[in-house]
Every structure is written in structure tokens, then in C-alpha cells.
Amino acid sequence: MSAQATTSGDGNDAIEDRGEGVAPPGQVTMVFDLNKCMGCQTCSVACKVLWTREEGEDHQWWMSVNTQPGLGAPKGWEGMGGGWQDGQPVRGHQPSREEFGGGWDFNYQEVLYGGTGNATHLRPVDHGDGTTRWGMNWDEDQGGGEYPNSYYFYLPRLCNHCTHPVCVSACPSGAMYKRHEDGVVLRDESVCQGARFCMEACPYKKIYFNYARNVAQHCILCFPRLEVGVAPACARQCPGRLVFVGSAEDAESPIHKLVHDWEVALPLHPEFGTGPNVFYVPPLAPSRLHEDFSIDEETPRIPPEYLESLFGPKVHAALATLQGELARVRAGGQSELLETLIVYRWTDLFGRYTTDPATLDRTPDRVPVRLGRTSGSTAAS
Amino acid sequence: MGTLTVAALDGEGALDPDDPAWGTVTATEVPLVPVPFDAQLNAYVRAAWTGREYGCSGPVDLTLAEQGDRLLARLSWDGSADPLGEFSDAVALFFPPAAGTAPPVTIGTRDEPVSLWLWRDRLPVQQALPSATQLVAAGPGVFRPGSANAGVSARSSRSGRRWTVVLAGPRQALAARRVGVALWDGSNDERAGIGAVSAAWTEVES
Lengths: 381, 206
Prior knowledge:
The structure holds two protein chains of two kinds. Chain A contains eleven helices and 16 strands. Chain A is an alpha+beta fold. Chain A is globular and about 60 Å long. Chain B is mainly beta. In chain B, 47% of the residues are buried. Chain A binds chain B through residues 11-13, 15-16, 55-56, 88-92, 94, 96, 166, 169-174, 190-191, 193-197, 200-201, 211-214, and chain B through 41-45, 47-48, 50, 86, 110, 120, 123, 125-126, 128-129, 135, 138-145, 191-193.
């Protein structure tokens, strides 16, 4: 992604004052309903083809779906440190290109032009950078548990555009900032010096390094799309209709209801202390089976303690709420919560971001893309 | 430390660190110290580097020369044994404002930013990046892009662990008649404000 922003930042002097934990009124928030995610990676590919196709970006998956339980990508990211503890930043590990799984390449030349016909098959080529040894969803369908009680679920991950972004605080050059108008965390790539403290500090490890350009890069929440009323590509392309986009402060929005009213949408690893603005409806699980294969209706197949390790102690109440609403509907009742999660109309997902990109005027001088710290700053994309 | 005299060098080859003309000019040894830990402005950097040793590189042998309106600086030092790891070896020459009074150890301050000429070893995939850049430094790691047309360039050579780099730029950078040097050991993950720096300004005369 080569977008650059013009800023008037004041460098390190302001860093100590940044990210004090108050989300701007227009903070864009996302909710992923994990009960509907089928791991198709359409979101990942939608992002990939839109933003990370240039040199140095082959290993970058700003949006990726991990299979849980698993080590994820980068490999073992949950144990790499970073975030905040007692108001102080925590030292973290800078994930390497290898830990992300490198940039996968295949033997297209050999298959298509090698003259060996069907004797040669498509296979990944290891360039010594981690390819074939790890990947963005290496844990695919490995799951946990023992047959017949094995289990897995999918976890879409992207930058959390945190309310208290430790990446912004860790940037010595002042290249990173959180936009006042919508809370999107961005980086001025013309200012970034490639120090990579942001990568160390981010506890979610969703910042990548572009070695070719010597700049770090991460999800920009498709802000040029947001600015013209179009939902981010990952959300818009999701065939499962599981991604809500909007404002958590709009009391009438489904996101507000899911996060604040019903409290069934939770942040990932809240103990990291960064205040994520991406929330997840935790996965319900089928009941366990006894050894005689009769159903143990009292015990969920996904261990609650595992879900607590991901979403914190509030996950138990969230699951109880979801199960209660399911029971109500099974008994013939109505559930506004379940009606909301079903999403009969895709437009119900995206609040004010329902503009059809096909209807946009794409004349270059009419594309109102704004890049920078304030709504008044401009730059071309 | 004595005063460093700017030599006059003829010939087109002076940007070459191994050009014989440099052998006619005496280098000045510039001792370096770690950028003071207490001067690190960034809380994350302080958290990450508490108890970790850094800034042990140097000294740097510095030679200055002029060719017309160009200033050339030849810097030579023992670099890291593993020069192309996650972070690269780097060196910078920096210039205070003419009326500046701040010491060099923070590599500029908010009130007295310095102009910094930075050379950084490049990975093979980075060869399209410029050989050197001009930055404005306002504190440890508080580096912002300078003029895109600063006309700063560099060439480097390496023999064993010994780096020799020639930085070239506009002679007017030397208006304050003082320079500082900063050095980063890439194999020790040094970058931004984590590195070695001149303990005192090197005075310069023509």
C-alpha cells in the first residue's frame, strides 16, 4: 500500500500525551459474529487484493482468519508481549517475516511453461523465509479436543484500531496517529523511519514490516472507503454477513446493542489494555458426547476456560445470554438479539457505510480521499 | 578533542570511500557514548531497553573535505559482525543550528533540532532506496524527513568488520562549524534513539 499522508505532527514531544484511552465520538467499531464465520478467507483475500499487492507486501495479511485453538499468525503471537500493564507499556517481541510465514510463492513458471505436462504439480517454493513452514492460517482445521469431542472455530483478526493504541505511543518519529474524526489508527509512511517499535508494542501483532520500503504497515480500516460511505472490504465481501461496522455510541445501532446493551460482543484479550474497537460474539458450541455417544447437554464442547482466555471473564455471561435467547426462540418466542445477529438485510450490518461502490463517481479529481491527521489535511492517494 | 580541519579534495572519486585521495587527509577520532537512557522520550523505548546494553560502538574516524559547494564526510568504524540482520548498521553526521547551545548527546532537541545526514546499510531488497537521507532530528529517535531535495548521498565499503562511508551534501550544512556523529549497531537491534553518539561537538575549521 503506497498511500502516504501529509501531517503536521509534533513528533515525540506529543507521544506521552497520545492514546490516553478516550475513543473519539465517531470511533468506527466492528463486531464479528464468530458463530457465523466459516473460515472461507474471503475477507482476507478481499483485503489482500486491495491493499497489499506491492513489493514488500507479499507476507502481509492485514486481515486474516486464524483457526482456534492454534498458534495463529505470527506463530505464537499471543505470547509475544506488548500492550499496557498498570499504565505502562510492556516490552514485546517484534515478529519476523518467518514467524508470519513469509510470502508464499508457487512454481507457476515450472507448471505453466516447464513443458512437463501433468507430471509437474503446483507446489509452494521455499525461499528460505519461512514459506512452507508456517502461514497465515497454518492451524487450519487442526482444532482442539479429542474425538468425538474435537472442536474448532475461526477467528478473523485485523488491527483493532485501539482506543489506547500502544503502537502510536511507541512510535518515536511521530509517524503514527489516531484520527480524531473516526478513530482509525494510521501511519504517515513518509515519516516512518522503520524503527518497528510499533511492531514490538502491538500485543495483537497485526503490524507488518515492508523490507523493500523500510516502513511498517498495517490495516487502515479501508478509510478511503469509509470516507465515501463504503464499508471496509473485509466486511463488505463477507459472504456470511457476520461483520458489523458502525458506531458503538449510536444507541440505535446494532453494534451499540451488541456491545453495550446485550453485552454479547467482547474484545479479544482485553487484558492487553489497549481498548480494542473490534469485538467478537463468542462461539457457541455443540454439547459434548459421552463415551456411549449420548449427549452431555451440560458441558459445552469448547471449554469455557479456553474462551475466557481469549475474551476475558465476561465471556461466560455473553454465552449465557446467547443460549438464553436461543432457548426463548426454540420455545416459540421472539429474540431481538437473534434477529439482529441473523442479519436479514446486508444493509443492517453497516450503519452509514452502505454506499454501493459501483455507484461511486470514480473520476480521479472527484474521489474525495483524505489522508492525514485532521479532516482539513489533504493528500492524494 | 582538537579542531577538525576541512580539507580540500580534488577529483571526481572522492565519494568513493577507498579513493586514495582520502589517504592524504588525517582523520580525527570521535569518541562516542550511549545516547543517555534518561533522555529517551518514549515510554515504550524505555520499557523495552531497561537493562539492555547499547551504544557501545565507536569510536569513529572522521574526515571532512570540501569540493566546491559540497561537503564530504568520510566516517570509518568497526561495525557489527552480522551486518544484515533485522536491523542494519547505520551512521549519521549531524549539524546543530548556528546559534545552538544544546549538547549533541540527544541528537537534537525540540527547541534546537539538528540536520542529520543518515547512511544505513541496505538489504538486497532495499537497493532501490536512497543511499542516504537528510532528516531533522529533535531528540533521540525523533527523526522526521528533511528536504526531499537535500542533495545528500553516500557510498560505502566494508572490509572485515570495518565500515567506511562517505556522506556528501551541501556545504552550507556546516554553518555552525560544529558536527556530531551517531552510530547504530544493527546486530544489537539499535535504531532510532538507541545508539551511540558524540559526547561533545567536534569543532570544525576550514
